[in-house]
């Protein structure tokens, strides 16, 4: 039984892949059915049909052969095949008595037209074919006009139109479902790729923030230790302890960030929360230990959403790192975080005059760059750093705005405005970090 079903399935697939061979087989089977039916006499309706009671005329056999041959092209020329088979069937009704069942080919051709065209065309062509052939059978046939053979012509042609239209509708429905499924699959893949790209960008920003901050502190404290090692060993030991603490913090944050890249089944990553304004005091302490006086004014630090909290922390971290690297000796910094309506404003100010070699220039955030009057990029724009770029991307990704530029009278100012209800999607338009206010 399994062998029979598999063989039938293979034959079906072969015929589906070779439509011309299928149509030729269908035409041959139709010709055989028409010839066998032409030997049958339906009688007067009171008894069973008698096979062999009559013999078809040679002209009828020719018409049946022509209509069957036309069915081979029913997929390529459906309208033309229907016109030919209907015309030959009408000729059979007009010239031959009793008529042969040439109309079988017309029924198949009408089904093909209905299954491959639209519904209005099916209605028009179907009614014309049904009416024309039924009228020819009633007017020119030898049987009374109300005989069942005449109404059979009407019924079979109507059934062919309805069946073809139903098949066309189902085929369109299946194609629509398949198209929607494919579109949904494409959309799902595109969404997955977009989310992967966003996650990679976020991880890259986190890695930059961690490395830029902690390595800068390690560098400063190591320099202090080397400078005072001989004359003040106690202060050198204290600086080395700060180096150890900063490096340990860097390793811990790197471990948390890189843990996001672990594959399923890898050892479980640490579950430490992301830094935020709640640990701002610890961040400021590291800068004070590095010799940078920092004043902090922070209100409602625990009421910000997680994304806004992290962005505010990273902006402050990057800005203070750049102050320490570029503001020069004797610089002081001020940090403030204030809620203003539906936004949180983060401001980092310094009064530094810049280290040697700093020159005015335009940084990527719309203010003076890292080499030109402020703590722009932690590595300097000319050196290819990404500090201001990272801050701008963090703020604009949440729907906020960032300004960074020199202050009147000296120093530098970084000002970020973050919406309290952060948006995780892309902003409506690519914003410039030098703008002010929020995009609506």
Structure, described:
The protein has 440 residues and is α+β, with helices and mostly antiparallel strands. The chain is 57% helix and 9% strand. It is built from eleven helices and seven strands. A five-stranded mixed β-sheet has the order 3-4-5-7-6, with helices on one face. The chain has a two-stranded antiparallel ribbon with strand order 1-2. A hairpin with a 2-residue loop joins strand 4 (333-340) and strand 5 (343-350). Helix 2 packs antiparallel against helix 3, helix 5 (103-116) packs parallel to helix 7 (148-228) and helix 7 (148-228) runs antiparallel to helix 8 (233-259). The longest helix has 81 residues, at 148-228. It is rod-shaped, with a radius of gyration of 43 Å. Residues 355-385 and 422-440 have low confidence and may be disordered.
Instruction: Describe the strand arrangement of the main beta sheet, using strand numbers.
Output: 3-4-5-7-6
Order of helices and strands: HHEEHHHHHHHEHEEHEE
First-last Cα distance: 69 Å
Structural class: alpha+beta
Number of helices: 11
